Amino acid sequence: MPELPEVETTRRGLLPHLLGRRIESVVLRRDGLRWPFPGDLQQVLAGARIEDIERRAKYLLVRLDRPEQILLHLGMSGVLRTVPHDTPVRAHDHVDLVLDGALRLRFHDPRRFGCLDLVRADQPHPLLAELGPEPLSETFNGDWLFGWSRDRQSPVKPWIMDQRVVVGVGNIYAAEALFAAGIDPRRAAGKISRERYRRLATEIKRILGAAIERGGTTLRDFLSPDGSPGYFEQELLVYGREGLRCRSCNAELRDERLGQRATVWCPRCQR
Question: What confidence score (pLDDT) does residue 205 get?
Answer without folding.
Answer: 97
